[in-house]
Every structure is written in C-alpha cells, then in structure tokens.
Please model this.
Amino acid sequence: MTTPTAPEAMLPIQRALYGRLTGDTELMSTVTGVFDYVPEDDVYPFVVIGEATEIPDNRHGGYGRQTVVTLHVWTRYRGHSKGLAIAAQITALLDHQPLTITGLDHIVTRFEFSQTLTDPEPPGDIRHVVLRYRVVTEQPA
Model:
C-alpha cells in the first residue's frame, strides 16, 4: 500500500503564473513575452519563468507543498530602471495575490527577493533582474 501524497505543484504553478502574467495587459504592453524557453530572435525586454524547487509542507491530515519559483526579467536598457519597473509590475501581480492553480488550493504567494545583474559579455548592455517567489499550496480536502 502506498501513502497518498500531494500532487506535484511545479507544473500547475508554472501554468498559473504564465496565465496571470500574460493576462495582464499593462505588463504585456511593457514586455515582448513571457517564456520558459526564449526564441533566439526574441526582442528585449521579456520575462522568463525559470527554475523552481519544491518541498513538502504537510500538516496532520493533509498534504501541501512550498514551491519556490525564480522569474527573470531581461532588458537592453542603460541601467536597471526599466527592468526594476517590470519587476515591480510582476510583484504587484503575484505578492499576496490570489492565484488559481489547477488541482491545488492556493494558500499564499510571497515575494522573497530580487537582484539586479549586468551581463558582462560585450556589448555589456543586457540587464537582468532575478525575482523569487514562494507559492504555498495544499491538496484540496
């Protein structure tokens, strides 16, 4: 006999994040797209739904997950102001906002950190903002 466990949350969360971000007309008027794989010929700025980790977050009588998702904002502007503005839009859409995740109950999404980076490769004009969010889910009762 196997013990029931919560369904994996990473893929449904990725789909929910993609839907939330691409469904926002203001964000989509600012970026060329939201991707998990960026086409070679895509034009900056864009957002990538990147790496994720998932750990159990079970309670007595129930199963849950904490999924940490990294998003990347890529721009070709001088300085980080454009990337940070896009990052702020994303955080407003996700941090402590309700999220519909297929097959799971969404408990909370929390902003964890952001970091600005500059690509050192010539011509040196690519800017990168890394964002991380923790999404807590539970298996429906």
About this structure: The chain has a mean pLDDT of 92. The chain has one domain: 10-138. The longest helix spans residues 81-94. The beta strands are 34-35, 46-56, 64-75, 105-118, 127-138.
